[in-house]
Each structure stands twice: as structure tokens, then as C-alpha cells.
Amino acid sequence: MQKQKTILIIEDEKSLRGALVDILRLKNFLTLEAKNGREGVESALSNHPDLILLDLIMPEMDGMATLKNIREDVWGKGVPIIILTNLSGAIEEFMDDVVTYYLIKSDWKLHDIVKKIGDVLDTQESRVVAGVLLQ
Amino acid sequence: MNKRPIISASDDIILNLKILAREKEKVRKKLVATAKKLAVTAAKLVVTAREKEVVRRKLAVTAAKLKKSYETLEKKVFERTKSLEMARAKEEAILLSIGDGLLATDEKGNIIFINKTAEKLLGKESNEVVGKNFSRIIPLEDEKGIFIPLEKHPVNMVLVTGATTAQLSTAYYKRKDTKRFPMAIMATPVILDKKVIGTIKVFRDITSEREIDKAKTEFVSLASHQLRTPLSTVNWYAEMLLAGDVGKLNEKQEKYLDEVYRSNQRMVELVNALLDVASLELGTFVIEPERVDVCALTENVIGEQKPQIEARKLRFSFSCEKGISFMQADPKLLRMVVQNILSNAVKYTPDRGKIKFSITLTDKKNILLKISDTGYGIPKNQQDKIFTKLFRADNVRNKDTDGTGLGLYIVKSIVENSGGKVWFTSPGGTNHDGATFYVSLPLNASKKSIANLVIENERPLLKAINH
Prior knowledge:
- With about 140 residues, chain A is α/β, with parallel strands linked by helices.
- Chain A has helices at about 15-25, 35-45, 65-70, 90-95, 110-135, and strands spanning about 5-10, 30-35, 50-55, 80-85, 100-105.
- The model of chain A has no long low-confidence stretch (mean pLDDT about 85).
- The longest helix of chain B has about 90 residues, at about 10-95.
């Protein structure tokens, strides 16, 4: 059986965080939670999750700063990050290289988000496998 | 003395005397005639002398009048000069104190005048710059700090290319003593006898305008975020309940929950549409054209509607002319246009109806999107309001369909600001005679920001914010 993947959810709204945790657990993922950017960076760098769901508007350290912090880390440079926000995407354009996806919460069904996570992780795996083969 | 009569004299002498007498008579006659002529001339001279006297008198009067006129004129010239000087002084005072920076150059670009505001903005005094070429005094850079080349400088454009006006909506100027600030620049030529003899450049510091714009954009973003968060919560929890993730629901429970979910979806759509409208009205939407495969984009959008189309058994056909592959357009905006007209056709056509969608090249420069349906159509007496905000015609409101009333307003804004046109035909009777919508778009959109679209009798949605 495939190893269970760990998803880190960095989201300040408790109810939304709860829904994400519930659905991911239901679909057999392990979950980690953080309610602001600072906690998010700590958790990411100490736990090395397989994928990070990142909200943008948060207290104490917002999404952009969190993203920067994580990407500055050697491990952090390569971890897939999906921005999950309700902010109208004026920043969508410059995010392409740095994040894997930019999703607007109110436009996405939970189940579809989970499917997206699955797709990204599969692509990651094949990239890693390919990387090993190419060595 | 005894007078002896001359009895005999020689014939010769008599003849001579006769001749002499005759001649003398002639002379005497001539003298008389001359005397007569002299008399006439004398008479004429008298008349002439009299006339000359009259003229002399007239001349004297005229001379006196002229003297007076001259004096009056001198006075007038003096007064006129004074008022011209005053006017000039006023104009100079106005120019010097205009709130915008003003700079005038000659035909070579050498500065001949700058006003007080310009001095302040540039951090230089008038005497430091007059006579020098503008290109040396005012180096400009763009947003990223890259030096703006001379060809893009409005003054240069006016001088070299003969443009009637040239503007640069944002350029940054760095004064020695402070950080750089954004300027809006406009230059116009000064033309005398059809030749450009100089330029006038007007510029101003737009830092506060930029800040207001930024605040508007931030407001839209924040509003969107705050409105959408509770909507997302309802969406996701309802979704999990309906999917049976937390237990099975009975039929009634499912039905009720479905109502909650769908209503919430309507709110989400309304918020999205309002945010689009807000962006359009605040002018924060920028058209960023890139190479877009319009046929592929449209097929993708159609794919999104496929579930609806199939569920309602609509007969749908789509054709995209082979010759059109790529056009210059903003993909996200083009997508919005296609989505709106397509979803309208699908929404307002009853089950088993027919929808025909085609994209063709109308001429070398434009494409035409045409979508016709056999749906409810648009009542004739409401057709003029179709493109206005939040308007939904009575016939569709009666039919229990959802809609925000904003879709066509958004389509019209985007299309018209891209240099295109949107229109429709609909018989509008009580039978389902359907409607056909047309969107014409240029193959090459240029980069622009969407200005406010003003439709007659339309009030801005965000009047309060615009204050």
C-alpha cells in the first residue's frame, strides 16, 4: 500500500480549516494544521509535509510572506504548494513559477480540491522517479 | 509852321506806308487779342486764387483735427499698452502658479520657460534649466527603474514625429534630494504657419492618484475575500453532507440541503459578478493581450457547460472557422465573454431546445461569435435594457431561472473596451422564438485599461466609493 501522504493546511478560518481536515482524513491523507503564517512556516520546516495548502489573508504573517519563507528553505524550494484563497486573483500571474496552483475557495468543490491534490502528488512522484532514473 | 500838304510822294513811299500801316494794324489787333487773353487769364487767376484760399482754409481745419486725433491716439496707445502689460503680467502669474508643472521648449527641445510648479517638481530653478535641452535635464525611468529611451519621451515624440499630442501616463522621475515619484506627462506642439516652433509639456505628480487607485483595488479585493469566506463554508459543509461523507441522509433531508446548497451557489455567482463589475467600474481591469487560440478556449468553455447541455437534452452544435487559429486577446476576459453568452443560451433555452454556436472570420481584421437559441427570447419592450446592470427581463424571471442580471453588462464592457461590438436580435414574441447574440472582436486587441462603461440612464454601482 502506498505510503500515506501528509498535507499541511495553513488557514486562519476555523470552519474552513475543519472542513479541509475532515475531507482529507476521509480520503486517507494525514493532516497537519496551522492557523497563521508563522505557525505554518514552523510546521512546514519541521515536519516536511508532502503538500501545503496555503491561505493568503491571515493574521501575524500573511500568505505571501509565508510562501517566501518556505521557499527560502532548501527543502521548501521544492514542496508543492497550492494557494487556496478567496482573494480575487490579481496576483495569479506572478505566482506560476512559485506555486503549483491558485484556487479560489468559493469556486471549488471540496472533492475537486482533493482530486487536484491527488493529481499534484502523482505528478510529483513521477517527477521524483524520473529524476532518479535520469541520474 | 506852314503845313504843306503832301501832294505828291513817291508811290514807293506810299506803298511802304500802307504796308507799315497794315502791319501795325495787325500788331494792334494782336495786341488787343493778347490783351483780351490776358484779361481772361487774369480773371482765371483770380478764381484760382480764391479756390486756393478755400483749400488752404480746409487744410488748416484738417490739420487741426489731425492734431487732435493724434493726441487722442497717443492717449489710447498708452492705455492699451498698459492694459496689455497687465494682461501679460496676469498670464505670467497664472502660468507661474498653475498647479501642474509646465515647461516650454523651442523647436530643438531647448527649454525656454518653466513655471514655479515645474521648478518644485523637478527640484531645479528656472535659471538652471533655461537654455538646456530637456533630454539632459529630465531623465525618466519606468516602474522597474529602467531608463526610458528618448523616443518614448512625449516632448521628443511631438518634435520628431509631429504628433499632435503625446502622453506618458506613468514615468518616474528621481530628484536628487528625495525618492522618485510617478508623473503623468502630456506634450503638445506649438505651431506657427504650419511649422512646429516648440513644445509645451504639462506634467504632474500622480502619487496620490496612484494611492487612491491602489486603495480602490484593495477594497475590491478585501470585499471579495470577506464576502466569499462564509459562502465557502456553507458550500463545503453542504457538499460533504450531500455526498454522504458524514452519514446518510433521508430523501427529505437531501432535498432541503440541496436547496441550501443551490441558493448558496447563487450567492457565490452574484458576488463574483459584482466583483467583476466593481473592477470594471473602478478601472482596475487591465486588458493584457496575448496569443490566444480562440477555438480551443471556446471548446474548453463549452466543455464546462456539457453536463448541463446533456442533462437537459439540448441539441448543441459548434463550429469554428479553420482560418482562425490565434488572435491577440486577453484570455481571462475572452473567457468571461464566451462563458456569459454561452451560459445565457443554455440557461434560457428549455429542455430539448436547439443552440447553434459559430465563430467565423468576418474580414481580415475581425472575428464574429454568433450564438442562436430556440429559447425564451427577449421581449421587444425590454430589449433596450438588456445590457444594463442587474436587469433581467420579465419573461425569464417568470420562468424560475437564476441569473445575476450582470452578465451582459460585463460582456458589453469587455467587448467594447477591446474595440469590438455586441448586439442581438430576438423576435420577442410570446412563442419561444429564441434570440441570437453576436460578438464582433478585433483580431488584435491593444493593451488598455477598461474605463467606465456608461450606458444612458445608468448609475454607477459604486458611486459612494468614487467620492
